Amino acid sequence: MNLEQELEQHRKTSGYVFLEDMFTDSILKKGELNFPKPGERAPGFILPNENGENVSLEGLLTKGPVIMSFFKGNFCSFCDLELKALQRSLPQFEKHGAILLGISPHTVSVSFDLKSQKNLSYTILSDKGNEIAEKYGLRFKMQEKLLNAFESFGLGDLTPVFGDSGENTATMPIPGTFVIDMSGKVIFTFVDVDHSKRAEPSEIIASLMSIN
Questions:
Q1: Predicted confidence (pLDDT) per residue in 4-34, tens digit
Q2: Which conformational region is residue 36 in: left (phi greater than 0), alpha (psi within -120 to 50 degrees), or beta?
Q3: I want to staple 130 with a disulfide (CB 3.0 to 4.6 A). Which of 15, 27, 124, 139 is the partner?
Q4: Is 79 a catalytic residue?
Q5: Which of 42, 67, 79, 180 is labelled catalytic?
Q6: Does position 192 have pLDDT exceeding 50, yes or no?
Q7: pLDDT at res. 126
Q8: β-strand pairing of 99-104 with 66-70
Q9: CA–CA separation, 69 vs 81, rounded Å?
Q10: How many angstroms separate the CA atoms of 17 and 11, rounded?
Q11: What pLDDT does 26 receive?
């Protein structure tokens, strides 16, 4: 079963699909999406990893192509399926010299726990306030009904999870995947307003194979 099939099956059986639909509604309120397309240069960044060490995109690209996967957080079951699928495909990514990054608005400490709990061996970066997600056109503001739903699940105050306060606690990243070659050029993009849809690892591998 590939990731697309896993996600579709989960959508049919999950009792929280209404929450994902609220996310989609919030994204649609953002209007036209403007994210890096294949052939464009990827915005640079420096972010802390799960150990609090700063990681720069520029530095990583001296070692190989970079796969970046923006995800919402450890409360998202669709993200969980994606993270596990990426972990399963990691040996194939590395076969092509690629470096895999997961990026979420979680604090460093929450990222550390997430990586340990889910047995992930790739780097998880903390994008406080979704500032880098904004550079990639992925940050969106959650609608009030979505914030109320979070509160009903005991997540009314997201500051301890996301490490930010004020307006940015009401933002999230649209799940998105980018593959960047060593010249800094985007060669693959997957962004969908439907939060139950994610990049298929086989498509990521195909993009890596296209690098000359």
A1: 899 888 777 865 556 666 666 666 666 668 9
A2: beta
A3: 139
A4: yes
A5: 79
A6: yes
A7: 94
A8: parallel
A9: 13
A10: 6
A11: 67
Q: Is 91 exposed, middle or buried (0-12, 13-18, 19+ CB in 10 A)?
A: exposed
Range of the domain at 143: 3-209
What's 140-195 look like in SS3? EECCHHHHHHHHHCCCCCCHHHHCCCHHHHHEEECCEEEEECCCCEEEEEEECCCC
Q: How many domains does the chain have?
A: 1
Phi-psi category of residue 9: left, alpha or beta, with phi > 0 → left and psi -120 to 50 → alpha: alpha
CA angle in degrees (0–180, nearest 5) for 96-100-104: 165
How far apart, in whole angstroms, are the C-alpha atoms of residue 168 and residue 166?
Answer: 6
The alpha carbon torsion through 199, 200, 206, 212 (nearest 10 deg) reads 30
Look at residue 166 and tell me whether its pLDDT is greater than 60. no
Tell me what the mean pLDDT of segment 116-128 comes to: 95
The whole-angstrom separation of Cα 136 and Cα 70 is 10
> In the chain, which ranges are continuous DSSP H helix?
3-13, 17-30, 57-60, 77-95, 108-117, 131-135, 144-152, 159-162, 201-209
Alpha carbon distance 117, 147 (integer Å) = 26
**CATH code for the domain of 134:** 3.40.30.10
Q: Identify the DSSP state of 49.
A: B
